[in-house]
Amino acid sequence: MAHLTGDDKRRYVAEMFARISPRYDLMNSLMTGGMHHRWKRDTARLTAAGAAGTERGGTDGIGATLDIATGTGDLAFALANCAGVTAVVGVDLLSEMLSIAARRRRVGHRPGDTPITFAQADALQLPFADNTFVGATAGFSLRNMPDVPAAINEMARVVAPGGKVTTLELTPMRPGIPAMMGRLYFHRFVPLMGQLVAGDRAAYTYLPDSVDYFLTADGLAEVYRQAGLVNVGYRRLGLGGVALHYGDKPV
Ligand SMILES: C[S@@+](CC[C@H](N)C(=O)[O-])C[C@H]1O[C@@H](n2cnc3c(N)ncnc32)[C@H](O)[C@@H]1O
Fold first, then answer.
1. N or C terminus of the chain with fewer C-beta within 10 Å?
2. How many angstroms does the Cα of residue 33 sit away from the middle of ligand 1?
């Protein structure tokens, strides 16, 4: 199903995440041995860093940040914990994922914490004016979008000049022994785990297949540049199977 495009892909992805939403967090922690929390913390810090230089960054805090396709809200919560971030908005297509994010916020939120708003919205048509946020991020979601350049363009549009766009995503590994081990793990073990833990082998077969269909890390960096972002680069994480991309909106 990873070969789907356009509306077919959007429908398939929506149905799949609605099905697996109750076990989504548990599966992430099992698949990555808990490492995804650390990667998301690093991504949030990078997104917030340097935002003080944007036109919207004030002296009493750097401003509001955005997490597109927030799912159950991990990256939104990580952004809220970054020094200087004054507000966080997390958007997702699916009410099933957003209701888990909102429940987590109710349980974990303390008076004085950075406010987090969750809203239903399409990352390809964000309901925000140009230059609204000091930074925008996306975690493990680009692969699921029917139009990756449109998603990066939208993030770049709503970020103020000087602000950062970041994405954390699974990425095809460079050939070698870690890549062979990664393929074995993702194509054999993960679908089995998905079947046993989430009761959904198809969703966790789609996951490794979608990586095979996705852009290389260099290809995604080029999409950033085409969106007008500068200082573009990426770091490989997790034995090279995850990439953290970043770029700045020019001042
Ligand atoms: C793999 S989850 C990632 C969730 C979260 N960002 C994380 O890192 O754990 C992918 C999410 O992307 C959302 N999604 C896919 N296409 C989207 C779109 N066009 N607009 C908004 N959300 C989208 C799905 O609903 C799902 O919650």
1. C
2. 21
Tell me how far apart the alpha carbons of residues 13 and 145 are, in angstroms, rounded to a whole number.
Answer: 8
Give the model confidence (pLDDT) of 49-98 as tens digits. 866 556 555 555 679 999 999 999 999 999 999 988 999 999 999 999 99
Domains of the chain with bracketed CATH: 6-248 (3.40.50.150)
Give the position, in ligand 1's atom list, of the atom nearest the Cα of 28: 9
Q: What residue ranges line ligand 1, CB within 6 angstroms?
A: 13, 17, 69-71, 74-75, 92-94, 97, 122-124, 139-141, 144-145
Among the atoms of ligand 1, which is closest to the Cα of residue 14? 25
The residue whose CA has the least distance to atom 16 of ligand 1 is: 145
Determine if the pTM surpasses 0.90. yes
Write the single-letter amino acid at 138: A
